[in-house]
Amino acid sequence: GEKRLPTTYFRSLNYLINEQHDKALGVLIEALEENEETIEIQLALGSLFRRRGEVERATQVHQNLVARSGLEPRQRIHALFELSQDYYKAGLLDRAENLLVEVSTSEEFAEPAYRLLVQIYEQEKEWDNAIDSAKRLSLASGEDMNGLLAQYYCELAEERIAAGFYQECAGFINQALILEKDCTRAMMQSGRLRAIKNEQQLAIREWSKIVNS
Question: Could you tell me how far CA 115 lies from the centroid of its own chain?
Answer without folding.
Answer: 5
